[in-house]
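ok trying again, last paste got cut off:
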Amino acid sequence: MAVRVVTDPAAVGTPVVTSRQGILGTVGRGLARNRKAVAGLGLFGFFVVVALLAPLIAPYDPHALQFSQMLQPSRTHLLGTTGTGQDIFSQLVFGTRESLLIALGAGVGATVVSVIIGVSAAYMGGLWDHILNLFTDVFLVMPTLPLMIIVGTYLHNRGLLVLIAVIVITGWSYGARQLRSQALSLRNREFLEAARARGERSTYIIVFEVLPNMTSLIVAIFFGAALYAVLAAAGLQFIGLGDPNSLSWGTMLYWAQANGALLAGSPVWVLAPGLCIAALGAAFALINYAFDEISNPALRPVRKKKK
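nice, full thing came through this time. structure:
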């Protein structure tokens, strides 16, 4: 921890050591004290561990067609088997990898686009602001699901990268609007005027002066975009716009619906991936709410003082 020494006016010559807290340290302490953040990070950490240790956790090869069809849950098959004889629990464990990859990849992509468009529009102002703001408004008013279906259908290659690209294209505009509003409030601050007076370039000012003061908002936008990605990917894969040969929770729902799992007496095939999608979405939502409370004290719950 960096420290600086100052002189106390009340005691001339007596050095007083004060700590200088960094942004990461402040955010870390805020997350540790927030119950929503702890719960969300715990859920997210659980899925990360499952994804990393999938070969050790899953008892069988998730693609192996070596069992009887539609077996009920038992000690041998904790969640039963699919309509083609695959172990559902093994598919659920390995499906965590692709589901997490989609969420994080689309979240990062949407956040980067939001930062570039939103912050650039606010800082440059003038004609650029009007053009980029109009571009953002167009994507904000477009119905998201039909747009995703159109883009996903038009792109014949339905691989993982295409799915992430579709989610990024439809999910960046809300974050860009938030970042633009925040950047507008910072554009005429004294520290930015000082940087301009020093002759710093616009790129330097945006990267090293503006963005560090928007860290909590950017992180909150990332988790919001990741939450959107989890739900959007599951929806697109469920209706068949993803790669049906890939292994994720969304494709598990697709094959469960295609094989009539509920009518065949295998509700676990539907409920297991659905609950995992809901749990991962809840993890991102809780972390997002926590960052909102950290960045905006007005949103923090009022705690009664102990008498």
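cool. The first strand starts at residue 3 and ends at 7. The longest helix spans residues 88-124.
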